[in-house]
């Protein structure tokens, strides 16, 4: 192995893979039973890049040669960049050696499409197979499914991979037509459907026969680029909601568009990455998945965009003041979860703690509740509570005045007299 | 006020609890030998660890706490934070003071403090599972040094033993001068004499395996290239990877 060449390849193919944001390595319970290398569990972030994103998997492309010309992608055919390709053995060696040093949880392998979908997919599957069977590798493997690949290859991929994913790329079909004319949503939905059905089938098998093989035990996920096209948050979240419901997705990732091209269909090169919007979308996603919110409560016809200056839960609460205040010593867990400033863990703590005695502000504070936000929406075992009839706008003002948003780059101007 | 000094082991702490009940002591402070501060005003008494006494306390705890609850108590004890032993004593007294199961009484200050400290210990455990960086030595052993804030080696052992079952490895806590050695069958605690390399009297501290330098370089390359400069966020980066861990992280040194 030529040291300099492999280093150059890794640099090129890591660079090309980094816009795929999925980094999760959880959800699979592969055990190290064959005295091989590795296992999977709740996932570990081994380090964080300077942009603050977690590194848990060796995330690379097999090659950045691509026959497609998607405007938002660095590896598009028409882009004049260095191209490279790994051999199967090179990817296997990198994965094993990185894993042995505790650098990573496993491999995230994607690829540009060379020749055709099946040809590319076959290589990806071959790498996963080699790791599992020849090298007894039990770490995490996430394979990107190439849109348009055959069912047989997808079925084989699921036997070796922990997670499979097909990227939706853009939230709407119209956006896709505009920026990725070679792709269409049908090609993406077909493998998603196949994976979904296969997972259900294998699960049933597994219930009958304990030794039945695993099929993508960590499920499937997808990703959408945000801010490259003009979709509003409502369209994005409705799409996400649809895919959560119809395809049992584990995760939908939202990737703020990083300008990589001066194509006039796209935002200009100097445009900032929409990180705040991305963050609000993830918060909304969490509300749907863990907090029992319906997507229609978060965004609707009148509120097609998420508030950028406050989080979506607070935003919902000040639009729906009729539900508040609630008494934390009596209310159901489901209601407590809807209070701004109370998270999943603190809600659990409240419900457990109140069995032993009524909770007051001090108790709530020590449980980690953000009192500065929660105080407008709850009462507890104290005579002290918000007695004023405050409008939603006032509450928002008070909360914003009392907190320092990590996103607010420009502090509101204060009048200075001197 | 009397200060009870013990050897710092969990067994020692349980013995302290036994003595407190045996002699009906009301106001006490608990302190480890290694943390004793010279103080002429407080009376001190040394408590010698006693397996029989400790086991009696442990049995009582098992009756009143869930299995996870006893494990949590042990993990919290590994924090070695000053004053934490007093809280543990307070917690145990609270547990014995009532017949109901109080593990989830988060309105109680001892229970809440235990939960907070446990969170810190678990975070450190998780960090070590993430931040251990093995270096492959010429004799094939994978070696890593760590300096965790809390004494988490006993907590991370099972994870590494499961995961790295097919390679020999050592994880060494430089701060507390002991480590774990896994020999493909068993994982055991060891203390090393770095001057002579004993008990593994080999060249492991002088030379890397042939490909070690290449893989370290590859990992550094990878770390640099997955970063997206347009999204730079130093504050978040430092929050996740505090500087005190950098000296053992291949990608940061």
What does this structure look like?
- The complex is a heterodimer of chains A (418) and B (253).
- Chain A has helices spanning 3-17, 88-100, 117-134, 151-160, 173-179, 185-208, 233-247, 275-290, 295-298, 312-319, 333-336, 344-353, 361-366, 371-374, 392-402; strands spanning 47-48, 54-55, 57-61, 106-110, 140-144, 163-165, 220-226, 251-256, 326-327, 378-379.
- Chain A is an alpha/beta fold and 418 residues long.
- Chain A has 2 domains: 3-229, TIM Barrel; 313-402, no CATH class.
- In chain A, the strands form 3 sheets. Chain A has a 6-stranded parallel sheet. Chain A has a two-stranded antiparallel sheet with strand order 1-2.
- In chain A, strand 3 (57-61), helix 2 (88-100) and strand 4 (106-110) form a beta-alpha-beta unit.
- The radius of gyration of chain A is 24 Å and the shape is globular.
- In chain A, 44% of the residues are buried.
- Mean pLDDT of chain A is 91; it is low at 409-414.
- Helix content of chain B is 42%, strand content 14%.
- Chain B is built from 8 helices and 8 strands, in the order βαββααααββαβββαα.
- Chain B has helices at 10-22, 51-64, 67-77, 84-97, 109-131, 153-163, 212-225, 234-240, and strands spanning 2-6, 28-32, 43-46, 135-136, 142-146, 169-173, 178-182, 187-190.
- A 5-stranded mixed sheet of chain B has the order 4-5-6-7-8, with helices on one face. In chain B, strands 2-1-3 form a 3-stranded parallel sheet.
- Chain B is elongated and about 65 Å long.
- The mean pLDDT of chain B is 91.
- The chains are: A alpha/beta (418), B alpha/beta (253).
- Chains A and B meet through helix 1, strand 1, strand 2, helix 2 and helix 12 of A and helix 5, strand 4, helix 7 and helix 8 of B.
